[in-house]
Design brief:
The protein is mainly alpha-helical. It is built from ten helices and three strands. It is globular.
Length: 332
Amino acid sequence: MSAGDRDPGRPATGRAQPRRGRPQARPSQSAAPRPVQRSSLREQVAGALREEMMAGRLPAGTHFTVKEIADLYGVSATPVREALLDLAAQDLLWIEHNRGFTVPQLTWSDYLDVIEARTLVTDGMMRRLNGRMEHVDLGRLPSLQRRADAAARAARSGHLDVLVGCDRRFWSELAGLMGNRKLVDYLDWLRVQYWIFAAPHLRRRTDIAAFCWSGHLSLTERILAKDPQGVHRILISYNQESLEQMAALCGEDLDGGHGADLLQGYTEPLAGTAGTDPTAPGPPTATGAAPGPLPPQRQPPESGPPAAPSLAVAPGAVSSLTVPPLAGRTLH
């Protein structure tokens, strides 16, 4: 075939080329990518087990296998195995060779490590934001206010099952103000560890509200006022209260025992800057070994809303679960 007979849409190499006058549609022009909204089955199983551990309904020492969890949820073994390995990678489960998985037993020393790490990170956050409150993502503040109200109400009512989720979402939203995804993820991991240790101790009591911090709204008000000094004071007081309240629950002596000087060096106030409210009152500083001062709280009503279904997990036997933790959820 001569050059004059050659198809104008095909070069000499023989590879087809688009004809002139017919623009090719690009992926960005044809359709925008759809956001992924539905979590995978693996994530749903991991999330459900994480919530059970955080609420103290899946206690330390509980042993189970992939098959037991798969049968419990009514799903195949593959996503369950992946979910359990994910939790093990986050130090939320122990892998027992050829035996399955076990919920770890966190010690008082583990709890102190969580409080120290949380204090170190939040202290650094506040010092970075000092004088830079204009960089806060203001678009998240309405959501932060809603979550603060929900968490404070749950804390004052002493409803542990509700509080665990509301409190976690509040602190995740607060950390998100920094605009650093890795910082959010790390603080959330610390929050999960905190509740895994604290919830079993709280679940054994009838006066839960007396041991639950409920200053979420006060903290949010200081953020709205662009007062980093006030925010810093509340965070330091909160960490001190967490130490003292949990020490009282666990029978630990903070005065002369391990953890007495844990927060030493973090109580130095931030330097005042223009644009903040130096007259804003800070929360009272908690002192002594007894639980620190709390805002006025009402005790849990004797006939309140029904508690979330208990899993009744016996250590070493997941088969004793009476209500699956995914009850009421739809797995896709």
